[in-house]
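Late entry, zinc ion complex.
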Amino acid sequence: MKLLIKGGKLVDFENNCFILRDILIDGKFIKKIDRNIRVQEDFKVIDANNLYISPGFIDAHVHLREPGFEHKETIYSGTKACAKGGFTHVFSMPNTKPSPDSIENLNDLLSRINESAVIKVTPVASVTEGIGGEELVDLKKLSKENIIGFSDDGNPVNSIDYVYKTLLNSIKTKKPLITHSEDRSCFKVGAVNRGKVSEYYSVDGIPNEAEFNMIQRDIDILEETGGHLHICHVSSKESIDIIRNAKLRGLNVTCEVTPHHLSLTEDVVMEKGAMAKVNPPLKTRVDVDRIIKGIQEGTIDMIATDHAPHEIESKKLPIDKASYGFSGAETAFSVAYTYLVKPRKINLIELFRLMSYYPSKVFNVEKEGTIKESYFANLTLINLRREYEVKSSEFVSKGKNTPFEGEKLNGKVMMTIYNGEIVYEEEN
Ligand code: DOR
Ligand code: ZN
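Prediction complete; structure with ligand written out below:
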């Protein structure tokens, strides 16, 4: 398809501003960016007046559930949801059945992606077989394949030896160790944040130590090995201090934060019950404020959704039995915009960086993350004036599990263009 996007405000990261330009797309790439481009009839013209345009968002952390848990989500439904959220490239986490732990299982996943994804999906391979923690995968072999890195997300990597080997492997291969940092010896059952919420429900709580102990351990190993450590969904104030110090010492440690951890506190869990249960758990105001400061000071590298769709029955169980996680792809931008940009904690350019430019740099994704001639025509068009109410019944994702139900959010994705094709368009 040939497209001409007219009159949008494009983000220019280099000059830290928005510029009014037209974008001409022919095939998969951006052909031309200029003022008042004129074309022949065979172009579809898109009126982007009053819309802001970001490079297509890149989500470093989504659970697409296929293979194995197709009742929760499929690669098709999950990528449709991501497209609606403005994402054009997502990294799929390996807590599937089987997990991408061998060439055979990875190839099966890649062919499923090839068949049904509506945007780009790059898998994260598992560190251990079946994310079981016992047998290390063949790092060398898998590193040659089309993967982003290695993670046992959903589970921590307890073995120091495996962390060591995966970090050493990352030096040459540039395939980082991506960690779900959780020291499970800190609690028995878990479920919610330790403190007033665990007391309220009379359940075992997860303390901040569970996260920051493991982060400290992995950073200590990184100091010895070198390589690249990427830490998922950081949620506690201590973790951010530890990561900041490690960065100041010159270590290659990067991290992400979710839209829910930068916006919601543990109080929501007492109000909404298991619908607000997530791992790591929602924490205190002090933790949330430290996260926001971590974004402002540059300790946090990106916003990633941890899109974790679940069937609604599994969220209606008692708090200690219900599934962890939120269906977050479709609300991510609006949540971040409403909680960060509207109250002027960061500006819109920085939010666009956190959702596109920074992930492209951290994970060496080429020709994405910037709006530029000859780069992939991956674009997200946004109307900042739109306010809407979150209705999970309108989610494209199979997962209707959101703690934002009924909340009014600002800023809406109006169109997502992936490789020069419109993969999502807001109807009204
Ligand atoms: O809340 C979560 N849900 N946290 C995780 O780490 C895993 C995820 C899932 O797969 O449901
Ligand atoms: Zn996780």
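The pocket of zinc ion (ligand 2) is lined by residues 153-154, 180, 232-233 (CB under 6 Å). Will revisit in the morning.
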